[in-house]
Amino acid sequence: MRDCTDINHLIKEYNAYITLERGFSENTLDAYNNDISKLISFFKSEGLTLADITSEDLQSFAADLYDLGISARSRRRVISGIKSFFNFLLADRYIEVNPAIKLDTPQVGKKLPEVLTVEEIDAMVESIDLSDSLGIRNRAIVETLYGCGLRVSELVNLEISSVYLDEEFLIVRGKGDKQRMVPMSSEAIRCIREYLPERMHYDIMKGEENILFLNRRGKRLTRVMVFYIIKNLAEQAAIRKKISPHTLRHSFATHLLEGGANLRAIQQMLGHESISTTSVYLHLDNTHLRDEILMHHPRNAGTHL
After folding, report:
1. Using CA atoms, how far apart are residues 31 and 37, in angstroms rounded to an integer?
2. Which of 56, 60, 65, 152 is the most exposed place for a label (fewest CB within 10 A)?
3. 296 is an active site residue
4. CA nearest 123: which of 234, 247, 218, 278?
5. Rg from Cα positions in the chain
6. 281 is catalytic
7. How far apart are alpha carbons 199 and 4 in whole angstroms?
8. Residue 146 annotated among the catalytic residues of the structure
């Protein structure tokens, strides 16, 4: 377990996490930081550290918000921020057990994620300068994010020993240190095969020998570096949407659904704990779902509107 006593370092890492993994806006980032400050102040007054916090302590914190007269909507947002913070701590191994997992949050409407079209992704790939070794690496990064639906944290920690090119799948370590097997697209396989000989020329740092994607100095990429790679490629392709590496994961799931993939299969490939998390993608293509109903429902047999 990693040291979680340096609060300033944790908040800096958390800001990178919610900006790049979740694609939050600056306003949302400020709100979540404010929520974390409330939490830290509360537990300092109780003489507790992050490693000491239990589910009961968080329930006390939520009750304190109520006693202060904070509105229900604001309490929902604060609790959402707290749950996000502890999810980060667990994913990055600062804690072993998530005390916020049972903290109740009233249901609120979900914002639909931004999605790229296949043509926009193709335009990003075509904008890459393949005369440079980093361009070959960047193409493999885009195709792996989009072709496998990985989180950016999963991509930067992806190990060569977990990539089975001949068998066409990879094993990724996701949230909560859980492993899952993900099929690879043919393009991702081809691009990684072309990148590996280029990688052999890097001066690889000790301890990074098994990490697939490296920078020029032979060290694994950071979330921020991947964010700028994707952002720059989108600009070169004249894409005006606000995107992040996570946009490619959303696009992966949406295009699978449009292609007829089962929602449970998408859930497994994304590594979602609950099918309700995956079901947000059902709202992204009403036309496709309408066509599916018209094609397969017995009441519509022989009728195509």
Report:
1. 10
2. 56
3. no
4. 234
5. 21
6. yes
7. 34
8. no
